[in-house]
Write a structure and sequence with these properties.
Structural class: alpha/beta
Number of strands: 10
Helix content: 55-70%
CATH class of the largest domain: Mainly Alpha
CATH topology of the largest domain: ABC transporter transmembrane region fold
Radius of gyration: 38 Å
Number of domains: 2
Distance between the termini: 65 Å
Mean pLDDT: 78
Number of helices: 21
């Protein structure tokens, strides 16, 4: 339940609404108690027991007897001046007013607690979303995206329904139980003591049921994560699934997961639904036993009183009837609290899963005392850089200096470490050993915003969003004008095809840019980098998705863009990096060759073989 407490921390900002809720609930409970207690004189009046009314006004005292005698005195005076029918009408109207006030304050309590409940859910989603943005890429290499999505959606919804919807019950019902029990003790300490011995038994049984619900809920939420992962993979790979006629295979895999989730959900629902009937049956059993025991006391007291013997008490039939009504009302908050407790335990499983994301450690953080780089002015330096992913060594012994304005190309076999080497510069991952410097400052001593603000990145896969072309190009560039966006699109050879669209730059490009061709998507990514106007460019196969004509136009534009900038270019097609100032050939995480295009061709090494293969393949 530690995670439950952590979830409640988000309610601190709404404590004003919580206090108003508590105040309104207390008034609601008091008015309900008063309305029930009025049944005693109501029954006395109805069954001609009002002869016991006090003729002389009693002396004030903080006792049950004073309250009873004073009300009887008021009723006696009212009956003397009117009649019993009018007195009956007066009691009924008074009960109706008290019930009305009880429900008014009950509504106000719910009105204000809803602000807290919805606010906490909003803040929780915001915190989760911000955490997913801040977590390093390595976290998502280990976690299924569908499971993370499940925690942000179904788990948050489960917290809302299981914990926050029960939150008011968790605070209101104990107050109601306390006030009810206090009133019952005043009415009959002996009978109340007997009841308090029986009630904890039902609480123990419901508690065990709640623990079982939590275990089942954890399994259900894990399975929901697996379902979302399967859906995400299916939608992302739909083209391949159809191409290989794998629809039935994928459907069978999903059906297996879906069926397992259904079985677990059904099992959990049966446990959850049993909580209310079990608690109601146990409560009714307690009330039946109490009715027998209390009825015996009333009959015994009545017989002693009629015989004029000592031992008789004022706990008569009307008081016992009111006691039973009050105790029956007590069972409602007891049952609600026990059911809410069981549901909260179920929701605690989701709270645990949410807390796992919120407490995930992020190793890539800003330094406590950062250094600022206003503008890149000298060089980027890799000093004996090593990087490993878990047990697998990816880069080792990387030494490199990239002077300002130079273009460095990285080539080599797939898996050789080219993209990883580029990803280390903006700190998408952190190196294991060595250091990376910009103008002599370790990149770990610079804030992430400052560091990444120096760079523009175009990846091999065009990362676009379900938004307009305008907003996709302007992503990350504050206060960009439309004229600047159009100019960037022209440089990236994208303006012509954008202008031909019905809504131009306001055209929505669909999920991941699905309404555009591969070449068009890539050119929008390039336009985004052009608009940012960065000091350092990282181009990861930036022209790979372009047709021959577009590639030539965009390549010329990139050459112009890179003229006075430092560029790191990752390329498989060697024809695109022949003019690089230096080419590094990586193999198994190490730099095995370096030099210009012409120098490397003369060495007849790895680069020469790659060049020959590409020439031959043409």
């Amino acid at each position: 339940m530690k995670s439950f407490g952590k979830i409640l921390r988000y309610a601190i900002g709404y404590k004003k609404y919580a206090f108003i809720n508590v105040f309104c609930n207390i008034l609601s409970i008091i008015f309900e108690l008063l309305s029930i207690m009025l049944f005693i004189p109501f029954l006395d009046l109805l069954f001609n027991q009002s002869d016991k009314a006090v003729v002389i006004e009693p002396t004030f005292a903080y006792t049950k007897e004073y309250a009873t005698n004073y009300f009887n005195y008021v009723m006696h005076q009212f009956i003397e001046e009117n009649d019993k029918v009018a007195a009956l009408l007066f009691v009924c109207v008074l009960v109706g007013i008290l019930f009305f006030l009880k429900n008014v304050f009950r509504y106000l309590a719910l009105y204000y607690i809803s602000v807290l409940r919805t606010g906490v859910v909003r803040d929780l989603r915001r915190k989760l979303h911000k955490k997913t943005l801040n977590l390093p890429l390595s976290y998502y290499s280990e976690q299924r995206k569908g499971d993370v999505m499940s925690r942000m959606t179904s788990d948050v919804q489960e917290v809302e329904w299981s914990i926050l919807n029960s939150l008011e019950l968790m605070f209101r019902e104990p107050m109601a139980v306390t006030l009810y029990v206090a009133m019952l003790v005043v009415m009959s300490p002996q009978l109340t003591l007997f009841a308090m011995i029986l009630l904890p038994v039902s609480g123990l049984i419901i508690g065990q049921l709640g623990k079982s619900l939590k275990r089942s809920s954890t399994k259900v939420q894990d399975m929901m994560g697996a379902i979302l992962s399967s859906i995400e993979e299916t939608l992302g790979g739909l083209r391949i699934i159809k191409a290989f006629n794998a629809e039935e295979q994928v459907a069978e895999k999903f059906d297996t997961i879906n069926n397992d989730h259904t079985k677990l959900t059904l099992k959990m629902a049966r446990k959850r639904d049993s909580a209310s009937p079990i608690s109601e049956f146990l409560g009714t059993t307690v009330m039946v036993v109490l009715a027998y025991y209390g009825g015996s006391l009333v009959l015994e007291n009545l017989e002693l009183t009629n015989q004029g013997l000592e031992g008789g008490s004022s706990f008569g039939g009307s008081e016992f009837f009111a006691y039973i009504i009050l105790f029956a009302r007590l069972l409602t908050p007891v049952k609600a609290f026990s059911t809410a407790y069981a549901i909260v335990l179920k929701g605690a499983a989701s709270a645990d899963r949410i807390e796992e994301v919120l407490s995930a450690k992020n190793e890539i953080v800003d330094p406590e005392t950062p250094q600022k780089i206003a503008a890149f002015s000298d060089a980027i330096t890799y000093k004996n850089v090593e990087f490993a992913y878990e047990e697998q060594q990816v880069l080792s012994g990387i030494d490199l200096t990239i002077k300002k304005g130079k273009t460095i190309a990285l080539v080599g076999e797939s898996g050789g470490g080219k993209s990883t080497m580029a990803d280390l510069l903006p700190r998408f991952y952190d190196i294991v050993n060595g250091e990376i410097l910009i103008d002599g400052i370790n990149i770990k001593d610079i804030t992430l915003k400052n560091l990444r603000g120096l760079m523009g990145i175009v990846t091999q896969e065009s990362i676009l969003f379900n938004d307009s072309i305008l907003n996709n190009i302007a992503l990350g560039t504050e206060n960009a004008t439309k004229e600047q966006i159009i100019e960037a699109a022209k440089i990236a050879n994208a303006h012509d095809f954008i202008s031909e669209m019905e809504n131009g730059y306001e055209t929505n490009i669909g999920d991941r840019g699905g309404k555009l061709s591969g070449g068009q998507r890539q050119r929008l990514s390039i336009a985004r980098a052009v608009l940012k106007n960065p000091a350092i460019l990282i181009l990861d196969e930036a022209t790979s998705a372009l047709d021959t004509e577009s590639e030539k136009l965009v390549q010329d534009a990139l050459f112009k863009l890179m003229a006075n900038r430092t560029s790191i270019v990752i390329a498989h097609r060697l024809s695109t990096i022949q003019h690089a100032d230096e080419i590094l050939v990586l193999q198994k995480g190490k730099i095995v060759e370096r030099g210009t295009h012409s120098e490397l061709l003369k060495t007849a090494g790895v680069y020469k073989k790659l060049s020959d293969l590409q020439t031959f393949s043409k």
